[in-house]
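Tokens for chain A. Residues wanted.
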């Protein structure tokens, strides 16, 4: 069978009585080349991490997510180096994105109404 035709294997727990919880979300995707994507979730079913591993289990790429008490994503860190911080307005819309690179470069995006 052609490897391109092999479908990824998705592993998850449907939870008790079909109730959505952190345990009912996809936590592992086995890829045809023996690589895998693993996902982590907190008790509120918010994704806290997603990691791409090669067939030997080495981290190729990862994203770690941080949230505030309003369940808004406030920071994303890529492979432990580059990161971005998000700010929100009073009604919960993203109004700013400050990105930082390990090289020391920064970029700032400010959102405005159209």
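Reply:
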């Amino acid at each position: 069978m052609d490897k391109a035709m092999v479908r990824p294997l998705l592993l998850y727990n449907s939870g008790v009585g079909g109730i959505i919880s952190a345990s009912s979300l996809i936590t592992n995707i086995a890829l045809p080349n023996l690589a895998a994507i693993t996902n982590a979730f907190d008790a509120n079913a918010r994704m806290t991490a997603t990691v791409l591993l090669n067939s030997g289990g080495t981290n190729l790429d990862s994203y770690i997510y941080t949230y505030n008490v309003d369940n808004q994503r406030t920071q994303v860190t890529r492979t432990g180096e580059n990161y971005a911080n998000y700010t929100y307005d009073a009604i919960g819309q993203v109004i700013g994105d400050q990105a930082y690179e390990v090289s020391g470069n920064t970029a700032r995006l400010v959102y405005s109404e159209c």
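The mean pLDDT is 80. Residues 68-114 form one domain.
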